[in-house]
């Protein structure tokens, strides 16, 4: 089995901390799939503090015989994004993808993400008799990504770069596995400044129900995650991080317990005395309700606690 991508190292523990919590949001997710294989996903949420509403619509289509994947996404910021990927066609285990974006009020950004915006304006001169029409052109460059990923039984390598005429930003990472041990490295290089902007290491161990993950970011931030599936119903996780510059330490514990096949409860707490609680219930096939709350233990009587409600529909 191929090792995970660098960004997915420690994912089991992060999922226990993050999934099932929607603090300060009213959220609705709807998913469906047509008989022809086109997947539609609609998501929307309202921020309880600001009242701002955000929504998105995403479609996905796969051509399995050619290893092609197409996806399109629109959101209420009036941004359209698209991605085309080819997997296991050029070389077994290799995935190549291009993504593009269209922003109506700024211009089109295609797979290579270079845009030109046009602005027309009539400008009056001091002499009305010589009043003329001027055309002002503004050029706006955008950056997009060309991405590749290669996976093997023992190695996973990812790389991407934004196609920017002034110089791309290159990201690369690799993970190797041996008898349950995982070692990874991630680097980011800014060709414009000829500077390494990220230099991260990770080391971990995975043994099925137990996962240990440690990382060092830029030689200044140190972190660790522990995931343990105690039994078929209970999952637990511990998170610890320390920054050498600010000497700030963060610590947290989280757990998820399945009451039955349709209901589960979640809880987490950190060293800031922030307590998160969650309850998820499958009302019927394709309908899931999630309730969550964040309690500030240090200022319990002052208020400011948050709640979250999410409804998922799938057909």
TrEMBL record:
One of its GO terms (molecular function) is voltage-gated monoatomic anion channel activity. InterPro entries: Porin_dom_sf, Porin_Euk, Porin_Euk/Tom40. The keyword Manganese does not apply. GO terms for cellular component: mitochondrial outer membrane; pore complex. Keywords: Ion transport, Membrane, Mitochondrion, Mitochondrion outer membrane, Porin, Transmembrane, Transmembrane beta strand, Transport. The keyword ATP-binding does not apply. Transmembrane segments: none annotated. It is found in: Mitochondrion outer membrane. Its main location: mitochondrion. Signal peptide: none annotated. Gene3D superfamilies: Porin (2.40.160.10). CDD domains: Porin3_VDAC. It comes from the Eukaryota. It holds the Pfam family Porin_3. Belongs to the eukaryotic mitochondrial porin family. This is Voltage-dependent anion-selective channel protein 3. The lineage of its organism: Eukaryota, Metazoa, Ecdysozoa, Arthropoda, Hexapoda.
